[in-house]
Amino acid sequence: MYFYAPKTEYAMKVFYPMILSLLTLATACSPKKTTLTFLETTDTHGAYQECANDAALIRQMKTKLGDHLILLDNGDNLQGTPYQYGSNRDASNPNLVSAFLNYFPYDVVGVGNHDIEAGREVFDRVFSEMRMPVVCANVIDEATGDPFWQPYTVLERDGFKIAVLGLLTPYVVTWVPDRLRPGLRFEQAEAAAAHWVKVIQEKEHPDLMVGLFHSGWEPQEQNLPEDAPLGRENATKWIVQNVPGFDLVFYGHDHRARAEKVLNCNGDTVCVLNSGTRGANLAQAEVTLQRKGRPEITIGLVPTAEQEPDPGFEAVLQPYLDRAEAYQNQEVAVLPVKISPEAVFQGSCLWVDEIHRCQLDIVAGLGMPADLSLAAPLNRRFELEPGMLTVADFFKWYPFENSLAVMEMTGRDVQAHLEYSYEIRNTIYNFDGAAGIDYVIHASKPYGERVVIKGMSDGRPFSPDSTYRVVLNSYRSMGGGNHFVNGCGWTQDEIASHRIWNSEEDLRSLFIEWAREKGTLDDTPLGNWSIKQ
Questions:
Q1: What CATH architecture is 31-323?
Q2: pLDDT of residue 292
Q3: Which of 56, 155, 190, 269 is the most buried (most CB within 10 A)?
Q4: What are phi and psi of 376, to 5 degrees?
């Protein structure tokens, strides 16, 4: 509200005291404290059938608390289920993700790496459908030099200001091909956090500073140099401890539920929460804000499995399931025997070998024949029983929308890659096996001496100095898993220089079509490698 008054004696004696009284009254009416409840979801990966329980609890709390409930989502929603995949490719209807977030509606949304993986055509459309701010400070529009999305937003409740700053792991550039993210630059999360916290404090003077980070808790590389261009893939712990200003941080990406309080470098307590993945929990913080002193915050995880699904949300979801039903139930090919990803820990197994066969056949058919194939089992949550496989089964077998790539590697690079792969085998999606060569992994030997390559599977000799064409998925070809950085010793520029081809179509779609043409899948592994103690 703006007032204009002439500088007269009357104004000085009557008008200005009246304004002062009104301002004093307004201040007196503003509460000295208020209590807000925050809920976070993250990493749903399109599994919104599993989130119907969350929806019921959120709806109950929204009805009870009104705008004193603040809903936050931390991204990685645009990938993971057949009906989400179908929704991404259906521009005639609102996307399933925006339908879920708009249902309540949420208050603020962050961005995940698998949202970027859907490609700009998809994520631009989906984020534009959302009726709430999308925040991400360290993804830069190369045309303007400014953040592509809002770096932060400020919510106001009962006269209190809540700033929410968004960040995304910049390691997107090592997983997602340039063609899916044109015009975007991904910068260090650590540096962006330090910059934008200062901006927010100086410009907004918030009563509560909240982080919404799609970046895991702790880096895999503990001794990462400070000048590493991308910083840490999982930077949340470092930011919480070393960038003062945050009161409450919600994060995602590593799928590990957490609720704890951490001291930062100033000795202040920061509350940290991660709801996990696929709606198993809601991350909840109850925050009491007051005019003087730090916020009082109580945190916890709220399991939702026992909650009855929300009928209203199920009604929203059902048309998406109906549209996806025909697609995901399409028959593809006969699987003669039961297969499991766990078999990879014993050696050559069908779960991975059919991916090898597919990759080698596809690139040969496209005039880009490869000598070798690298592939890993991409989850350990499912097994496949013998019988007719449907499209839905292939989403279990190959859950990601990676494309296909061909790289040039020396024999020495291949061996280094496999050495590193075995070293980090506990992360099953990073445990690459190879086809096209015969080899043995000697588990009891030290790192660097475990992998013994006996020769090419077609009888040719294998040489450390020879250059081979290797087919693999785009995630790995971009540097995902750090096999090339930590195993082969390559820089990101060197990784790019070794890539000679990428497919336009996603690998799972290629896999489905390959299997459909085959009709009946193989019942015997390649048998080209084994593990010995």
A1: 4-Layer Sandwich (3.60)
A2: 87
A3: 190
A4: -130, 155
